[in-house]
């Protein structure tokens, strides 16, 4: 039987007890109906994981007793930052979830010219908090012990101007170059993908002025929730941890 993994944003020390987050308490007690003594795995996102067991349950929630630490990591050797145009509703949740499963280390939501989503600052903060929760849940499911950063929403130009000497790629359906021809064993990649309406011509030129190379995935035009995941899988197969 698969052991339940739980992210706890605390310092974890063997022999101590920790209060599980409210959502995790609900999951282990009401959804999974685990009994006291059930095996758990805890991780705090700072590397490695801890064996644990369900120790008690009171009005404040479920508590776990922390056991032995294991330094195991399941990160890809390829460091990928995804610059993703914000998409509507569940599409963006899906992208964050699957990108986390595919090993991305950083996700930067972008406001773009053709973005359908237009939210005020308070709503954007709530949405980013929600996406961070989606990334944590994806780490719990997939076995990752390091949670990818999910940045605040920023303008495309700001995101493109940051960074260093990484390989920078922007997906453009009509680009002459393919992803495979541009990827030759890099250790760090920044991948730019537009929202539902794609990137405007001005935004494509702006990205290329900041060192992004235009590339295509194949002969078909993919949706905004499909393109980054297909590209991430291809990148991991070419230079990451899916090749073997």
Written overview of the protein:
The chain folds into two domains: 4-70, Hypothetical PUA domain-like, domain 1 (Ribosomal Protein L25, Chain P); 79-239, SPOUT methyltransferase, trefoil knot domain (Alpha/beta knot). It has 244 residues and is of the alpha/beta class. Strands 6, 7, 8, 9, 10, 11 and 12 form a seven-stranded parallel beta sheet that branches. A five-stranded mixed beta sheet has the order 1-3-4-5-2. The longest helix has 22 residues, at 121-142. The chain has seven helices and twelve strands. Helix 2 (89-101) packs parallel to helix 3. Strand 3 (39-43) and strand 4 form a beta hairpin.
Q: Total number of β-strand segments?
A: 12
From the alpha carbons, calculate the radius of gyration and give it in angstroms.
20 Å
CATH level 1 class label of the largest domain: Alpha Beta
CATH architecture designation of the largest domain: 3-Layer(aba) Sandwich
Order of helices and strands: EEHEEEEHEHEEHEHEHEH
Sheet with the most strands, sense and barrel status: 7 strands, parallel
Give the count of helical stretches. 7
What's the CATH H-level homologous superfamily of the largest domain? SPOUT methyltransferase, trefoil knot domain
- Based on Cα principal axes, name the global outline: elongated
User: What's the number of domains?
Assistant: 2
Low-confidence stretches: none
Query: In percent terms, what proportion of residues is strand?
Result: 25-35%
What keyword list fits this structure?
244 residues; alpha/beta; Ribosomal Protein L25, Chain P; Alpha/beta knot; 2 domains; 7-stranded parallel β-sheet; 5-stranded mixed β-sheet; 7 helices
């Amino acid at each position: 039987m698969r052991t339940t993994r739980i992210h706890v944003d605390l310092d974890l020390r063997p022999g101590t007890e920790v209060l599980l987050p409210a959502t995790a308490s609900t999951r282990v007690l009401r959804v999974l109906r685990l009994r006291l003594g059930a095996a758990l795995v805890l991780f705090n996102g700072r590397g490695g994981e801890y064996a644990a067991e369900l120790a008690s349950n009171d009005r404040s929630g479920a508590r776990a007793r922390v056991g032995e630490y294991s330094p195991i990591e399941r990160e890809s050797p390829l460091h990928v930052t995804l610059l993703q145009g914000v998409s509507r509703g569940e599409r963006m949740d899906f992208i964050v979830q699957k990108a986390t499963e595919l090993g991305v280390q950083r996700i930067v939501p972008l406001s773009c010219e053709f973005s359908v989503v237009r939210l005020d600052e308070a709503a954007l903060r709530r949405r980013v908090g929600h996406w961070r929760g989606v990334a944590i849940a994806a780490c719990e499911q997939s076995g990752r012990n390091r949670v990818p950063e999910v940045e605040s929403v920023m303008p495309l130009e700001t995101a493109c101007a940051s960074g260093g000497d990484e390989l920078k790629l922007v997906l453009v359906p009509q680009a002459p170059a393919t992803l495979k021809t541009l990827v030759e064993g890099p250790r760090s990649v920044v991948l730019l993908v537009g929202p539902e309406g794609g990137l405007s011509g001005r935004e494509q030129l702006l990205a290329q002025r900041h060192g992004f190379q235009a590339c295509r995935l194949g002969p078909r035009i993919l949706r905004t929730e499909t393109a980054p995941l297909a590209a991430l899988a291809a990148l991991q197969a070419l230079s990451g941890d899916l090749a073997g």
